[in-house]
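tool_call predict_complex ligand=zinc ion
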Amino acid sequence: MKTERYHTRLQWVGTMECPRCHKITWAWQSSGMSECFPHFFCNKCSNVIHRKEDQRLVWEEKSQALLDRIAATLPDCPCGGRFTPGANPKCVHCGADFEHTSDPVERLHDERMTVVDGACVFDGEGGVYRVKIVGK
Ligand SMILES: [Zn+2]
Ligand SMILES: [Zn+2]
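tool_result ok
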């Protein structure tokens, strides 16, 4: 599998403090101009999927109907979980969710995709890469 290495000194690399265990998780976040929408996290791990076909569907509008239509076609994650609306990236230490402030319909247009250290990004067409934060 391809690995994308992002250094801790990059602008879009940062840390999140876990609300439960208070340890630090490093993560890379796509910029607000990245067009990384919509994206959906796995309900068991921090892997994320971002598909062009979904983007065509929600490019001009977002709605519960569109979300339901996409959700019905989201695949399973290799970890045994499933990519699901409303799922979140998780603490690498204890697995607690980093909760999102918006609801799943609102998140259809969220371009800021947070990929925690070690998680994988899928494109739904067989493409996948793992994010590794270096320089910690
Ligand atoms: Zn934690
Ligand atoms: Zn998973």
